[in-house]
Design brief:
This protein is an all-alpha fold. Helix content is 68%, strand content 3%. It contains 16 helices and 4 strands. It has helices at 4-32, 52-68, 74-78, 82-104, 117-133, 156-174, 180-201, 211-229, 238-257, 262-267, 275-279, 284-288, 290-305, 318-353, 359-375, 377-384; strands at 35-36, 48-49, 140-142, 148-150. The protein has a two-stranded antiparallel ribbon with strand order 1-2. Strands 3-4 form a two-stranded antiparallel ribbon. The N and C termini lie far apart (60 Å). The model is unreliable at 107-111 and 267-279 (pLDDT under 50).
Length: 386
């Protein structure tokens, strides 16, 4: 089983390589006019390079290559084809996002449409098919407080692809402010690494798990990219980065949440203080990634009520609403980061401490953040019309 230092090496490699490649990607984007122009929906005011996802993919590829040569991860790479499938699927979604950014970039900086929704969907489904053929699928999961559900063979591919589509679109939709998506995914991947590493240590996963490795790499990628993406951003991750992060989060959550041994989970249902930890492994990422997933669900409902295309763009996302409420760019990002941290702590506390009495402090923190969001002087001025 890999040691904690092994994950530190892979995550550190992803961070360093991403940090080195990002300014190179930015320079190439500026020279070739691969930039995202400002428009009514976006908050930036100057054309900004939008291919940071290429640097993130470089960090991922190098870190995965380093892991393949480490003895601690030997069982992960020698007993399964999953790492190769993840690498190929990551390449596919990165290329799809890159082509989309190229189509949206023009030398005169006018905003134009990128790839069509069917074309993007085709690319994501192709990546999902690669994952399925490589064995990266959900097997079974436990519904909270109910029994373990084992997915039949003919449903596994469909559920796996739908899980990928949901994660990829959630990250893509939340990527609307400088540093927002990278920060949220950094917090979420760090939290999920702690959770999956503990599951692995407790021998509650079938065989060698790819999940903790991918989570550590994603954390490193985000940390390496954030210095260039904090407001005012010098480069955006673009669709190539958002779709890549969505795919990798889908992979690590599915191979952990969908692989926990159902017999062992059944035997731990009565363990005091670890309800979240043992009862619903696939439920954990839904809470940790609650901010982008809620934003995606809210966007679908909002557009359906208005009879708009579900895949269309608008300015009704959570981050847009916080900015309009008067919080400004940096504070809006900080608020959504804090929500992700609170949700992550809510599900991590029982697994780390072995006690289930952590709801009260996290509920207090959530209430305090809610009051700050609504009652901040700038927000009150905006609501009162002053």
């Amino acid at each position: 089983m890999p040691a904690g230092s092994d994950y530190l090496v892979t995550g550190g490699a992803a961070a360093v390589v991403t940090m080195v490649l990002t300014p190179i990607a930015r320079a190439q984007a500026v020279r070739r006019s691969w930039v995202t122009p400002p428009d009514d929906r976006r908050v930036h005011t100057v054309p900004t390079p939008s291919i940071g996802g290429l640097a993130m993919f470089g960090g991922f590829a190098v870190a995965l290559g380093i892991a393949s040569q480490m003895s601690g991860f030997a069982s992960v790479f020698t007993t399964t084809s999953e790492p190769l499938a993840v690498a190929l699927a990551a390449l596919v979604v990165t290329l799809v996002g890159f082509v989309d950014e190229l189509k949206k970039s023009r030398p005169n900086h006018r905003a134009v449409a990128g790839l069509s929704a069917p074309a993007k969907l085709t690319g994501l489904v192709a990546a999902g098919v690669i994952l399925v053929f490589g064995g990266v699928t959900l097997w079974h999961f436990r519904v909270p407080f109910l029994r373990v559900l084992v997915l039949p063979d003919d449903l596994r591919p469909l559920v796996t692809v739908l899980w990928l589509l949901g994660m990829a679109n959630a990250i893509n939709l939340i990527d609307g402010l400088d540093g927002l998506a990278a920060g949220i995914v950094a917090i979420a991947s760090g939290a999920f690494f702690v959770y999956s590493y503990r599951l692995d240590n407790a021998e509650l996963l079938f065989g060698p798990s790819l999940g903790p490795l991918i989570a550590s790499i994603v954390l490193g990628m985000c940390l390496g990219f954030l210095p260039y993406n904090i407001h005012p951003a010098r480069i955006f991750m673009g669709d190539c980065g958002a779709l890549l992060l969505g795919l990798l989060m889908a992979v690590c959550t599915s191979v952990v949440g969908g692989r926990a041994d159902p017999e062992l989970l059944e035997g731990t249902s009565g363990v005091s203080g670890q309800t979240y930890f043992f009862f619903a492994p696939l439920f954990i990422p839904l809470v940790i990634l609650g901010v982008p997933l809620f934003d995606m669900a809210f966007a679908i409902v909002r557009r359906a009520i208005r009879r708009q295309g579900i895949v269309g763009a608008d300015a009704g996302h959570l981050h847009h609403r916080l900015v309009r409420l008067g919080h400004g760019h940096r504070r809006s990002v900080l608020i959504l980061w804090l929500w992700t941290a609170i949700l992550s702590g809510l599900v991590l506390y029982p697994s780390v401490t072995g006690r289930g009495n952590g709801l009260v402090p996290f509920a207090i923190a959530a209430l305090a953040l809610l009051l700050f969001t609504v009652l901040h002087p700038e927000a009150r001025k905006r609501v009162d019309g002053r």
